[in-house]
Amino acid sequence: MNELITKTATELAAAVADGEVSAAEVTAAHLARIEAIDGQVKAFLHIASDAVRQAQEIDRKRAAGERLGRLAGVPVAVKDLFATVGMPTTCGSRILEGWHPPYESTITSRLRDAGAILIGKTNMDEFAMGSSTENSAYGPSHNPWDLSLVPGGSSGGSAAAVAAYEAPLSLGTDTGGSIRQPAAVCGIVGAKPTYGGSSRYGVVAFASSLDTPGPFGRNVLDAALLHEVMSGHDPMDSTSIDAPVPPVVEAARHGDVSGMRIGVVTDLSGDGYQPGVLSRFAETVELLESLGAKVTEVSCPHFKYALPAYYLIAPSEASSNLARFDGMRYGLRAGTGSAEEVMAQTRAEGFGAEVKRRIMLGAYALSSGYYDAYYGKAQQVRTLIIRDFEAAFEQVDVLVSPVTPTTAFPIGERADDPMAMYLADLCTIPSDLAGNAAISVPCGLAPENGLPVGLHVMAPSMADDRMYRVGAAVEAALQSRWGHPLLAEAKGLAS
Amino acid sequence: MTVMYEEALQKYEPVFGLETHVELGTRTKMFCGCTTVFGAEPNTQVCPVCLGLPGSLPVVNRLAIEYAIKIGLALNCSIASWCRFARKNYFYPDMPKDFQISQYDEPLCSEGYLDVLIGGGCVRVGIERVHLEEDTGKSLHVGGATGRIQGAEYSLVDYNRAGIPLVEIVTKPVEGTGYLAPEVAKAYVTELRDVLRSLDVSDVRMEEGSMRCDVNTSLSVVGSGVWGTRTETKNVNSLRSVERAVHSEIERQAFVLDAGDRVIQETRHFHEDTGTTTSGRSKEEAQDYRYFPEPDLVPVAPSPDWVKEIGASLPELPSARRSRLRSAWSLSELEFEALRNAGALDVVEATVALGASPADARKWWLGELARKANDAGVEVSSLPITPESVARVAALVSAGTLNDRLARQVIDGVLEGEGTPDEVVEKRGLAVVSDDSALLSAIDSALADNPDVAEKVRSGKVAAAGVIVGAVMKATRGKADAARVRELILERLS
Amino acid sequence: MSITRDEVAHLARLSRLALSDQELDHLAPQLDQIISAVAQVQEVAAEGIPPTSHATGLTNVFRDDQPVPCLTPEQALSQAPAEELQRFKVPRILVEE
Fold first, then answer.
1. Total domains, chain A
2. Does the residue A347 lie in any domain?
3. Do C41 and A333 touch (CB under 8 A)?
4. A89 lies in which domain range?
5. What residues pair up with B267 in beta bridges, in sequence order?
6. How far apart are CA B64 and CA B27, in angstroms?
7. Residues 6 or more apart from B352 whose CB is under 8 A from it?
8. C56 to chain B: which residues are within 8 Å by CB?
9. Are C44 and A384 an interchain contact pair (Cβ–Cβ within 8 Å)?
10. CA-wise closest residue to A81 among A122, A131, A44
């Protein structure tokens, strides 16, 4: 591996800014890496044809003494859910194959302004529905730790790209766990900012009240850097919070948990959790205690209803958000006959099975006669979950749990078993429903299979910095214990 | 009233309701910054938001909220202290998102009323709700015979109109109007239109589509206390059509019920040419719109201060203006109705404002000018004469410069484009002769021609002077002031 | 059983999804299973608990009534499956709304 691709984003940004290395070199190194291994990993759906030109522009600016942004010259891979001008946006679906949006998402605009090199669009479960990328119409991505395993989902491509050193940073979205779960099973850092903390303008909607764009990085500081650059108020998004971005980079630089009150959510454990996941989690909790944190147990009694509530709210919103894909204005148009027939045929051919299931589930939950018992009830459960969090955060500063009940599972194992697939989101969903911030930080390898396990840290809304502080502390302690980053253990890829 | 109609109303009680959609005259759309100019080239006023492109998000236009609250207040509604937008989900090519952002069970304004004057009485039409939503795109149906959907081969969609703010105003059912139902319906829409105009929130041009009405009609068997099945009539594009649509539905439903059949709950389409309705979509299989709160928008909670500010900015509403003018002009209700029906309120008010007395203003506008308007087949306010001119003519008559006959000739001259009243008087030489010496010479001349009159007058038959007056008027071609002539004759002969 | 195959077929029509019989055979039991599972929310005692539709607590987010540059017709129509006369060409519509 070219040395450049193992550098952190923070290091690369500094090196480019100092003139130690050119942006063009950095980009070339990453393009070469992609060329070499993406045939196996399949993280990318599209590589930017102008990546080198983007990099050259940064070099030109630097040479001319112009001001460079915080991510100047740093390659970033973008989940194919973000509208990008000049690159297609498929959302992992046939129905948008070849769609070239005539506008750019706020977040990718901000990244461009910060000098980042948008190196390509990554694979994902179709319309963000899934936990493995197996629902992608373009085939699954593969976990760099073991190519026969899933990289998690729905932002699996973005997680795999970073874990495989194809880019130091990537963008994902988290609706039920779609950043944190892939991060955990790929052994990298993935964060879900406070809902409303990062703009959804230009991010194709799955579940509007839950979707949260967020960062992936190979370490806590890198993720924090991307988190800061991408976040902040956007007047184009009515649900965007108009307040300063929490100081996450600052927190990531000062991983000190002494005196912090940490709550272990007792409800997020038990049957269905892989022993190695539970043991690594327990050890990490002990580690936190040894670092000076005050650890207690906290009960969030309504968390056990989070999964069913989520699988009512999210599909309901999705069934409405995806109605626009009707073959009339863009995307696939299939079938003949009347507009009604063409719409139905287009959607039958353009959508995969999981999307169809969720659309129908959503239509059911919102139907007159069923609304109160299903969607309405789920919204009440949501309130109770928010209250559980509020009560918990009166006693503790952050909550911790495993990220997902198992390590990466084999491709194909759960593909046609929706219920089994949904269980991957057990721990991550409550934070999506409540809207507060949460992060996955690598905390070890499961003894039974040597696969990565993530620590899940949840912070109150707009206190994103707290979770970065905890994540940084854990990361530093574990790195000094192992002597190297966790990723160095990955044998799935030739170095 | 046809025999059929009369008979129908002996057996049945009509109940009607109106749903009116008003396009607001904001500069930009409801949820994005696209302009809203009428008649622009297709798809030149669209953006990712109003095209519903994947990833786009709506942001509420504050002015639209203000206008909707204004309308609600003018209709005596309560304004919600907290409400949300909702998604109305259905598939249709002119709807970019295949859902419409609207309001469902939390309308911005509710529980109001509008008083409608009809035949000297007043009907209070209850307003159920006033809410905001976005308009759809517009389709051209190609290939069929009529340009309508039936028989078309394909459609061409223009999304310029998609996203324009619409206010929907829904009445409560209006009962107890009997045979006057069609007139009351028309009067309601007329009054509503006038209120909206006075608020300056919309063009309210039915012919341009900035105000659209759907009429609901049902018949209840007299004395049964049971409401009949309701039909909804669309494509009602003018005030006259509102009246005709209600009338036609009453007749049609009565016919159906008389035959022992039941009225089908459905949407009907009104036809301008026949004045009747035909069946459209059956409402039996009601659409399930799966309403839920719009997650991309946050609740709207107008502060009491803001609502008060908007209330304070309300202009004088038509009903208040009418009361004020009627009392200022000392008119009876019937007299005032006549003015309103002639469409002469504005011009009369303007004429009075320029100094004419209400009686004079009314006399000219409702008399001579109304006749001219009728002959020309136009509204009296469309005649090529301004309130300024009418006020001037009235002033000239008051000053004695013109008499009634001359004044009418001046009016003619203005209507024919000869200029201002003064210019016409000048050009046509229409001023009353006020020079006594000229009058005296005419008098002497007439006296010479009628020697016996002088004798009769001197002997006390003053009325005989009339002949001389007539002769002088003739000689001066009507430009003499008859009263003055008479005075001079009597002086002369005494 | 929480939902019948016929009800699933109705949902498919409502959602404009032209599912084949095979697909219906496959998806209907899965949907039934999922609906049974999510019905678990009904176990929760929620008397008097207000539903949460928005987690942020924000209200009154507005924009000014000021025009903002929009797309050109070319951009708007650039991805259209069919166009004519600068409009989106769509197949004949059966039922008028």
1. 1
2. no
3. no
4. 3-302+382-489
5. B232
6. 10
7. B329, B358, B361
8. 298
9. yes
10. A122
Chain C, nearest residue to B148 by Cα: C96
pLDDT at B281: 65
Partners of A101 on chain B (C-beta within 8 Å) are 48, 53-55
Q: Which residues of A touch B290 (CB under 8 A)?
A: 319-320, 363, 366-368, 371
> How many C-beta neighbours within 10 Å does residue A400 have?
27
Q: Is C71 within 8 Å of A103 when comparing Cβ atoms?
A: yes
Tokens 């002597």 sit on residue? A483
* Interchain proximity C91–A347, CB inside 8 Å: no
In a domain, A349, yes or no: no
Does A478 reside within a domain?
A: yes
**Under 8 Å between Cβ of A331 and A95:** yes
Could you count the other beta carbons within 10 Å of the beta carbon of residue A247?
Answer: 15
Residue A110 lies inside a defined structural domain of this protein: yes
Please report the pLDDT score of residue B439 as a whole number.
85
CATH topology of domain B436-493: Arc Repressor Mutant, subunit A (1.10.10)
Q: Check CB contact under 8 Å for B59 and C61.
A: yes
Give contacts of A374 with chain B, Cβ < 8 Å.
none
The end-to-end CA distance of chain A, in Å, is 5
Per the structure block, which two tokens stand in for B262?
Answer: 């039941």
Task: Determine the Cα–Cα distance for residues A398 and B209; give it in Å rounded to an integer.
Answer: 57
Q: Is C21 on the interface with A (CB under 8 A)?
A: no
What token pair was written down for A107?
């977040």
* Segments of chain A with pLDDT less than 70: 1, 493-495
Cβ under 8 Å to C: B residues 302-341: 302
- What whole-number distance in Å separates Cα of residue A476 and Cα of residue B29? 52
pLDDT tens-place values along chain B, 494 residues long: 567 888 999 999 999 999 999 999 999 999 999 999 999 999 999 999 999 999 999 999 999 999 999 999 999 999 999 999 999 999 999 999 999 999 999 999 999 999 998 877 889 999 999 999 999 999 999 988 777 777 889 999 999 999 999 999 999 999 999 999 999 999 999 999 999 999 999 999 988 889 999 999 999 999 888 999 999 999 898 999 999 999 999 999 999 999 999 999 899 999 988 989 998 766 545 689 999 999 999 999 999 999 999 999 999 999 899 889 889 888 888 888 888 777 788 899 999 999 999 889 989 998 889 888 888 888 888 899 999 999 999 999 998 888 888 899 999 999 999 899 999 988 888 877 777 888 888 888 888 888 888 888 888 888 888 888 888 888 888 888 888 888 888 888 87
ipTM over 0.90: yes
Which residues of A are identified as catalytic?
79, 154, 178
Does the CB of A96 have a partner CB in chain B at under 8 Å?
yes
One-letter identity of residue A19: G
Q: Is A85 on the interface with C (CB under 8 A)?
A: no
Contact (CB<8Å) C60/B45: no
Range C27-32 contact pairs with CB under 8 angstroms and sequence separation of 24 or more: C27/A353, C27/A356, C27/A357, C27/A360, C28/C3, C28/C4, C30/A357, C30/A418, C31/A357, C31/A360, C31/A361, C31/A364, C31/C3, C32/C1, C32/C2, C32/C3, C32/C8
Determine, for residues C65 and B34 on separate chains, whether the beta-carbon distance falls below 8 Å.
no
Shortest distance between the Cα of B90 and any Cα of chain C, in A, equals 8
Query: Can you read off the two tokens belonging to residue A320?
Result: 């409405």
Residue C26 near chain A (CB below 8 Å): yes
Sheet with B292-293, edge to edge strand ranges: B99-102, B86-89, B292-293
Q: Kindly report, as residue ranges, where domains of CATH 1.10.10.410 are found in chain B.
A: 436-493
Tell me the nearest-neighbour CA distance from C68 into chain A, angstroms.
12
CATH number of A158's domain: 3.90.1300.10
Size of interface B-C (CB pairs under 8 A): 135
Written as one string, the DSSP assignment of B261-277 is -----EEEEEETTTTEE
Task: Please identify which residue in the block is written with the tokens 């005296």.
Answer: B440
